[in-house]
Amino acid sequence: MKKTTILALFLFALFSNAQENTKKSYSFSLQQAIDHAIQNNYQAINAGRDIEIAQQKKWETTSMGLPQVNGNISYQNNFKIQTSLIPAEIFGGTPGEFAEVTFGTKHNANASLALTQLLFDGSYIVALQASKTYLEFYKNYKRKTDTEVKEMIINSYGSVLLANENAQILVKNKTILEKTLFDTNETYKNGLIEEENVEQLKITLSSVNSNLNYINRLKEISLKMLKINLGINLDDELIITDKLDNLAVSNMDMSFSSSDFDVKNNINYIISENFVSQRNLELKLQKSKALPTLAAGVNFGYNAFGDTFTLLNTDNKWFNYSNLGLNLNVPIFSSFGRSAKTQQAKIELDKAKTQLTQSEQQLKLQYQNAKSDYEFSVEQYNSSKESLKLAERIENKQQIKFKEGLSSSFDFTEAQRQLYTSQQNFLQTMVDVINKKASLEKITSK
């Protein structure tokens, strides 16, 4: 029993070690995280595969107008040959009577090779153009996906930084508060202050501990979300190297928001243009169906027959046949069915053009909103920075007054809460600057 237990523990240790060895470790700055995600994010990977599918689809369409070669081998066993009736008088029989005869052989075989070539088809020409537009659409969609992935990584990266900074500040506040509580409690024991002062600090400390526990849980969740967006395993180690304040400062560029906005550079507008092109090609397709089509074909084959199965014998006789043909199909009258389809395609094209105009106006409005939000975030950053300095000074003065007995615990606690709120607001404004800059870059395609 003891040996079995030792063996089980040994195998478990080996398994655990193997599991740990499969884990990977990553260390990313924000830009490195963006570059990694564009290559490894799950959505980005599938968007790249859509391009590969579109490329194969383009070749599939192209091949329709190239020579097509098909081979055919068939075998037929007529185990019961069909009976036919013919006038008996052909064979000297009684007029008006019919003789029962069978035609054919029991074993028939055929081997053939056919070559066909499309010479002219208006639909094929339009299909070639459409395949290029189809490929272009998925290239644009990949570009849109990359833009969205970039914004998503910036937001996720910022959330992790925010949680980390929050945790550090709360730990610092907790350390200072615990020391203040200890000193206050000692003063209370000496009978120099009232117990209410101690109790008020305990309430504040309890609130800080609760927030710290929440932030620690949020750190783990934010980091896992970033891992998913990066396309790495949740069990892998991830270290982020950028600092929140450095990123916020580097993203404050008011000249960027003042530059001219060209809606035609926006990927959503480009995709809308692509959609108009598709509708225009659909209209051409319907019009092309009124044109004639011309195709050529060459057939070459051999037939063999017999009442006994000797088709595979070398001395069995095979009969050659071959032909060359042209097929011209001319649409003449469709009871206005083609005209109705053409009108539908024309209306769909007009709808696409209207949607393009609508998209242009909406993007201009989105740019104005994003620009305003970014400028406001920068203003809020500067304002919160000054407010934090004031809150720190106020809290410091109240702490000195409280220790000297010149201020009540309520005033001191209120100054602390004001400081903690200012700290949170300042951190949030840094994240807002980063995120709003990312939103503005997404619209301007920069």
Structure overview:
With 446 residues, this protein is α+β, with helices and mostly antiparallel strands. It has 10 helices and 8 strands. The protein has helices at residues 2-22, 30-40, 42-63, 122-189, 195-230, 244-250, 254-257, 267-288, 337-403, 409-444, and strands at residues 25-28, 68-77, 83-87, 98-102, 107-120, 237-240, 293-306, 319-329. It has a 4-stranded antiparallel β-sheet with strand order 2-5-7-8, with no helix packed on it.
Radius of gyration: 40 Å
Averaged pLDDT: 90
Low-confidence stretches: none
Q: Please estimate the helix content.
A: 55-70%
Return the structural class: alpha+beta
CATH architecture of the largest domain: Up-down Bundle
CATH fold topology of the largest domain: Outer membrane efflux proteins (OEP)
What sequence of helices (H) and strands (E) makes up the elements? HEHHEEEEHHEHHHEEHH
**Main sheet overview:** 4 strands, antiparallel
Order of the strands making up the biggest sheet: 2-5-7-8
What is the CATH C level class of the largest domain, in words?
A: Mainly Alpha
How many domains is the backbone divided into?
2
- Anisotropy-based shape: elongated
Helix and strand topology:
Elements: H1 2-22, E1 25-28, H2 30-40, H3 42-63, E2 68-77, E3 83-87, E4 98-102, E5 107-120, H4 122-189, H5 195-230, E6 237-240, H6 244-250, H7 254-257, H8 267-288, E7 293-306, E8 319-329, H9 337-403, H10 409-444
Helix pairs in contact: 2-3, 2-4, 3-4, 4-5, 4-8, 4-10, 5-10, 6-10, 8-9, 9-10
